[in-house]
Amino acid sequence: MSNSSKERQFSAEPDSIRTYRSSGLRDASTVTVKSMDGTQQAEAEAVTLTVDGFGTVKDPLTGEVQPVKRFTWSNAGGMTVQVISYGAIITSIKVPAKDGSIADVVLGFDNIPGYQQAKNPYFGATIGRVANRIGGGKFTIDGVEYHVTKNWENRHQLHGGRIGFDKFNWVAHVDGTVVTLSHTNMDGHEGYPGTVLASVTYELKKDNRFVFTFKATTSKPTPINLTNHSYFNLAGHSTGHEEVYRHIVSVNADRITETDEDSIPTGKLLCVGGTPYDLRIPRELGPAMSRAPGEGFDNNFCLTKGTEQRSTFTARVVHPHSGRFLEVYTDQPGVQLYTSNFMPDPNKNIRPKPINAPDFYEATHLEPVVAPTTGDPPISGKGGARYFKHGAFCLETQNYPDAVNHENFPNSVLVPGDTYVHEVIYKFGIYEEI
Question: Which residues contact 94 (CB under 8 A, 6 or more apart)?
Fold first, then answer.
């Protein structure tokens, strides 16, 4: 089974130096991607972790008022990460640029009311019991049909239902610089069978890897598919869609899962060759989006790896102007590339172009001016930032969407006695042009 197995130790180590050609970097110029580890700097000091408060929340089921904890990691490379116990949410990731400046590269809010507002599109959240969609809000296990809540167009379930894992305040345990957050999800919640004990363990490494592992056990057979829903913009969380279009993206996938008009998988796997989904070689994100149906991505890419291979390279994204890069590694079979297509577009004019302008790596473009009376205002984010359509991208490592309803997809049903394990690495660094 691909994601329901006895616990295992993570063994894959990302390479510190990678060279590739990018058609988006000035006519296929060569770029060397280097990590900010001991080969470029003095031996890093120990990573530090501090814990403080981030307001309070009410339990969505009992109404009990609970304090929210915030965890802040820092390393000598200049990187900091913040996570809160509410929703096991990643609220901030700050990393250096090639000029030494620091920017927060994930979207989010300054306080708990922000994360609880209806317009929050799951910024940074841990998603469960089942990430992505369940077609028709139903599935069958061992001959029993289960109906779960339909919170997507009143036809399907999305991201665990109305009260998913992201709406609970998780219990925290700290061991040195390792933080484990856990949540007990009761039998019958949102229509799912079995009581599930889920956890996620977070740790920042000195070489700018942010490593986390999801685990889960259950009292009854039940589908499990957890993910993190961080929204990235490597130029800085507030810089908007123009900067997102400048990113260079590559995804280690030969196929995608075909979907219908409701984004529900049909069960077919489509080869990416000759399609807008062929991101096996690095491509400028804006022009790539312009060729995709709907001018943006919201697709599950089926990762290419050996049958017995565990964690593997998943995707790389580079922002040439700042020099920052993000690499993602996981042991899961899929990753959802989402380009914030459903975030606000007040003037209905945010759209990628087939070719980026010549000044695209030097100029700074401002977000649109919006009338105060608009019916689709931007999302008010951290530090007064305004978030619009295409202002970020997501790389949600996962099992295939709706896998419980497709026998040809990797198994998603966790059974008593087994442990669901899902490993992820976000690796940040600075590339060097040669």
Answer: 78, 79, 80, 81, 102, 103, 104, 105
Q: Extract the tokens encoding 143.
A: 């001959």
Q: Is 38 left (phi over 0), alpha (psi -120 to 50) or beta?
A: alpha
Q: What's the CA gap between 234 and 262, in Å, rounded?
A: 30
CA distance 383 to 316: 28
Q: Which of 243, 284, 396, 423 is catalytic?
A: 396
| H and E: helices and strands count for the chain | 3, 32
Catalytic residue selected from 156, 229, 321, 390: 229
406 included as an active-site residue: no
Interatomic CA distance for residues 125 and 141, integer angstroms? 28
Residues 153, 262 contacting (CB under 8 angstroms): yes
CA gap 227, 168 in Å, rounded: 15
**Single pTM value for the model:** 0.90
Instruction: Please report, as a single letter, which amino acid is at residue 101.
Output: S
Token reading at 245: 């279009």
Tens place of pLDDT for every residue, the chain, 434 residues? 444 443 433 233 333 323 333 333 332 233 334 444 443 333 345 899 999 999 999 999 999 999 999 999 999 999 999 999 999 999 999 999 999 999 999 999 999 999 999 999 999 999 999 999 999 999 999 999 999 999 999 999 999 999 999 999 999 999 999 999 999 999 999 999 999 999 999 999 999 999 999 999 999 999 999 999 999 999 999 999 999 999 999 999 999 999 999 999 999 999 999 999 999 999 999 999 999 999 999 999 999 987 677 899 999 999 999 999 999 999 999 999 999 999 999 999 999 999 877 666 565 555 678 888 888 999 999 999 999 999 999 999 999 999 999 999 999 999 999 999 999 999 999 987 64
112 membership: H or E segment, kind and range: helix 112-116
Residues 6+ apart with CB under 8 A from 327: 14, 33, 313, 314, 315, 316, 425, 426, 427, 428, 429
User: What's the distance, CA 277 to chain centroid?
Assistant: 18
336 CB-side CA count, 13 A: 26
Compute the chain's Rg from CA coordinates: 21
Going by C-alpha positions, the residue among 425, 316, 395, 312 that lies closest to residue 2 is 312
229 is catalytic: yes
